[in-house]
Amino acid sequence: MDLPGMKPACWILHWFLRKLRLNSIKKLSTIALALGVERTRAELIPFLTDTIYDEDEVLLALAEQLGNLTPLVGGPEYVYFLLPPLESLATVEETVVRDKAVDSLRIIAAQHSPADLEANFVPMVKRLASGDWFTSRTSACGLFGCCYPRVSTPVKAELRSHFRTLCQDDTPMVRRAAASKLGEFAKVVEAEYLKSDLVPMFVSLAQDEQDSVRLLAIEACVSFAILLPTEDTEQLVMPTIRACVEDKSWRVRYMVADKFIEIQNAIGPELSKQDLVTAFQSLLKDGEAEVRAAAAGKVKEFCQNLEPSVQETVIMNQILPCIKELVSDANQHVKSALASVIMGLSPILGKN
């Protein structure tokens, strides 16, 4: 970082010291190896924890290096020694540093024994989830899925409660983080709690006042549709998909169009036939060119995935009329997206 008013000589010294620190961090494993496991645990890790007030480039390198340091602190038995510096890094202002710290925490979570997870890792997740700054709470969202499967039933209940609180957080950035990790969390939660605990979180996020939260909730649609039985998907997920197709924000409708094939594959052919054909028509006729272009690019795959018994009828009667309109669309990106896939309909429809 260039400091305003800094004299050239001072700037060179500042740059040199920054490079020196960065190179030292990148050689962290070498330093730890030279110190040995006991001194690494007793001296190096506390030193690193106390000096998390550096420039972003240095902190990013540190967050990455800490994820690979388990053998050098004595192996999985002592991996919890790496938690304090990573916890601090997970609270900093710079997003890329926090994300890298979360990545490293997810790596070392797998190296904890179940007992150490409950004794050390889960308390850290709780601290992050209830932190005063939104930065720590956003980081916490990415850690539930990696520790939930290996803890006891009472601790699982606490984690679900903490995640629910994050989904209702006052800060949109935290709700966005929760929405982006909800599908991942759903994959590790037991079936009986999926409907009772997580589906209400999903519905709430999908109806959030912020469109940036709603569009991220769409990704969770796919996970829930895969995990839930067909009848529950129809009752609990499809209303949200229909609402998102008609959402007032074009960004939300764009996200539905972009994820449409994933949604189609997740809900299965029967519900696709009932609900998604109409939804797809709506997206192809959307008022925003970006949405039409995203939907147009999915025409071939959508038609291929239709149930064979209705495939030709649906294409001829419901999809082709929309395609004919898009061929003369005023927006070149829409026509380009359609042109790239339209020939793929030929094998489906046959020679006639």
From TrEMBL:
Keyword Repeat set for record: yes
Pfam entry (one): PPP2R1A-like_HEAT
Bilayer-crossing regions: none
Alphabetic keyword roster: Repeat
HEAT repeat start-end pairs: 159-197, 198-236, 237-275, 276-313, 319-352
Any one cellular-component term (Gene Ontology): protein phosphatase type 2A complex
Recorded GO MF terms: protein phosphatase regulator activity
Domain Phosphatase PP2A regulatory subunit A/Splicing factor 3B subunit 1-like HEAT repeat per the UniProt entry, residue ranges: 269-350
InterPro entries (UniProt xref): ARM-like, ARM-type_fold, HEAT, HEAT_type_2, PP2A/SF3B1-like_HEAT, PP2A_Regulatory_Subunit_A
Keyword flag Repeat: yes
Superkingdom per UniProt: Eukaryota
Entry's family note: Belongs to the phosphatase 2A regulatory subunit A family.
Name the record gives this protein: Phosphatase PP2A regulatory subunit A/Splicing factor 3B subunit 1-like HEAT repeat domain-containing protein
Organism, as annotated: Artemia franciscana (Brine shrimp)
